[in-house]
Amino acid sequence: xxxxxxxxxxxxxxxxxxxxxxxxxxxxxxxxxxxxxxxxxxxxxxxxxxxxxxxxxxxxxxxxxxxxxxxxxxxxxxxxxxxxxxxxxxxxxxxxxxxxxxxxxxxxxxxxxxxxxxxxxxxxxxxxxxxxxxxxxxxxxxxxxxxxxxxxxxxxxxxxxxxxxxxxxxx
Length: 171
Hints:
By secondary structure, the protein is an alpha+beta fold. The protein is built from seven helices and six strands. It has a four-stranded mixed β-sheet with strand order 1-2-6-3, with helices on both faces. The chain has a two-stranded antiparallel ribbon with strand order 4-5. Helix 3 (51-59) packs parallel to helix 4. The N and C termini lie far apart (45 Å).
């Protein structure tokens, strides 16, 4: 993998999908804060080498609010999506959440669909790492505005596994 191509692919996913309002999501973009991330250039993309080592390295840094680190792996390097997500879960459980960080995974062999909209980047196994308090705070804001209202409960249970469920405070 070439970092220039990976960055281009990630940029295109963010600009052409995550930041674009979608009718099937009640006019919301898949990521309500993607547009701001583009404008602020608050995300960084890297090629990963070893999931555990990479996340351990990131855990030694304090990510600022709004900052997102995207680590891309070849889908062949982590060909088993269940093992990929289980590793991320364990690292969140035992390391990252204790340091106010959270890692969210995206794997091309696992469909992440909400109301007929496929959220996957599709080319790489990705880990997105961000400040946990900031993510919780922003989730509460969009929950109050109805962002999660039509999302399937099983999908929400997965994404809120290591986070505060913002719907409780939105009521």
